[in-house]
Amino acid sequence: MKHRSSLVPTYRVRQGECLNSIALAHGITWQKIWNHGDNSALRDRRRDPNVLLPGDELWIPEKSTRTEVGGTEARHRFVRLQVPSKLRLRLLEFEKPLVNVPYTLDVDGKAVEGFTDQEGILECMIAPNAKTGLLRICQGSVVREVRVELGVLDPLNEPSGVVQRLGNLGYSYADVTSAVRRFQADVGLKESGKLDDATRAALRDRHQS
After folding, report:
1. Strand runs (DSSP E) across the chain, as ranges?
2. CA distance readout (Å), 111 to 7, 91, 114, 116, 148
3. Is residue 153 a contact partner of residue 164, using CB atoms and an 8 Å limit?
4. Structure pTM?
5. Is 129 helix (H, G, I), strand (E, B) or coil?
6. Which residue in 160, 158, 157, 182 sits closest to 169, CA to CA?
7. What's residue 125's pLDDT?
């Protein structure tokens, strides 16, 4: 039987959590958790460390100790790894990217301003345990506000994750099959309404995750 004395009890992922926020709470890097041998089954099932499902179980390794040598009269700077995290969003309108559009993103009271790039993408750094944000998009005299929920996207290989991504891309229909069929038509795939590998790959590419 495998000895687990170096590990704390299994951690169950809750809604709104991600690997970065879990790692921050335990004082270690997300790579140390994700790459641990006892999490191999979860790695095989999820593939993407950025997308976990509530109820997923993780083994959390113990924190390790490292010794640094330095002079007593000198100042020393220590940088905590993986803090903050990078948030990446792609803004589309009628399937076309919003290019060079000014935006303001307020996350937990901290506002970041910038412009989207040539693919409609914005990137900024946020706290790993951030929960919500408010995105303001300026198009001429029109300012639109979008509430951003952080840490609530389910894995693509789960039905809930498919529905979330389709909805984010504007494919909100009464049933999933109709939404999938419309998405397939727009990306040039066979309109089967089934979530085959090609459809999942196209959905991952369009959604950027």
Report:
1. 11-12, 57-58, 85-90, 92-93, 96-97, 102-107, 110-115, 121-126, 132-139, 142-149
2. 38, 18, 10, 16, 13
3. yes
4. 0.61
5. coil
6. 182
7. 86
Query: Within 10 A of 162 (CB to CB), how many other CB atoms are there?
Result: 21
Beta strands in 1-120 (DSSP E): 11-12, 57-58, 85-90, 92-93, 96-97, 102-107, 110-115
Task: Report cis status (omega within 30 of 0) of the bond before 9.
Answer: no
Structure tokens at 16: 């709104």
69-81 burial, b for 16+ CB within 10 Å, e for fewer? eeeeeeeeeeeee
CA–CA separation, 163 vs 72, rounded Å?
57
CB atoms within 10 A of CB 129: 20
Around Cβ 190, how many Cβ atoms within 10 Å? 12
How do residues 167-202 score in pLDDT, each as one tens digit? 888 887 778 899 999 999 999 999 999 989 899 989
Six-digit token pair at 66? 């490292």
What domains appear along the chain, each with residue ranges and CATH number?
Answer: 11-58 (3.10.350), 85-149 (2.60.40), 159-207 (no CATH)
Q: What is the pLDDT of residues 31-68, one digit of tens each?
A: 999 999 999 999 999 888 888 888 999 999 887 666 66
pLDDT at 28 over 70: yes
